Amino acid sequence: MEAGFSEMRNEMQSRDAVWNRIQLECQQLHTELLKIREYKDMQEIQIKHRSSCVQLAEQLENKNTELLLLAQSQEHQREELNKIRNHLYREKQSHCSEQERMKTEISDLTEELHQKEVTIATIMEKASLLERQLKMELEIKDKLLAKQQLLDFQYRVIKSENSHLKELV
To answer: Which residue spans adopt a coiled-coil conformation according to this UniProt entry (predicted)?
Structure first.
C-alpha cells in the first residue's frame, strides 16, 4: 500500500512540475503578448508598416490560440491532479480506518485472550482443589475399605468360632 502512495505522490509531484512549467510558459506568453501589443500599437501609429501590423496580429492570434490551448491543457492537468489528490485522500482514509479496525480487533482479541487466561487459571485452581479433595476422599475410602475388610475378616472369624462352638455344644 505504501508503494501505491509513493507512486501517487511521485505522480502528483510530476504533475505539479508540469503545472509549474505551464504557468511559467503562460507568464512568458503573457509577457510576449504584452510586448506584441505594444509593438502593434506602435505599428498602428506608423501607417507605412501595415503589413508588419497584420503579421503581428496573426502572431497574436496564434499566441492567443496557443494560450487557450495551454489554458485548456492546464485545466485538464489541474483536474487530473485533483482526481489524484482525491484518490490519494480516499486511500489514506481507507488505510486509516482499516488500521483503526485492526487496532480495535487486536484490542478485542487481547481482552478475550486475557479473559480466557483468567478462566484457565480459575479452572486450574478448581481442578487442583478437586484433585486434592478426590485424593482425600480416596484416602478415606481406602481406610474405610481396609476397616471393612478387617471387620469382614473378624466377622468370618467370629462366625467360624460360632459354628465351631455350636458343633461342640
So the answer is: 57-119
Furthest C-alpha separation in the chain: 176
With b for 16 or more beta-carbon neighbours within 10 A and e for fewer, the 77-108 pattern comes to: eeeebeeeeeebeeeeeeeeeeeeeeeeeeee
Whole-angstrom Cα distance, residue 141 to residue 149?
A: 12
What 8-state DSSP symbol labels residue 48? G
What are the residues whose beta carbons fall under 8 Å from the beta carbon of 159, sequence distance 6 or more?
none
Model-level pTM? 0.40
Q: What is the pLDDT along the chain (169 residues), one digit of tens a residue?
A: 677 778 877 878 887 887 788 788 878 878 887 887 777 777 666 655 556 656 767 887 888 888 888 888 888 888 988 998 999 999 899 988 999 999 999 999 999 999 999 999 999 999 999 999 999 999 999 999 999 999 999 999 999 999 988 888 7
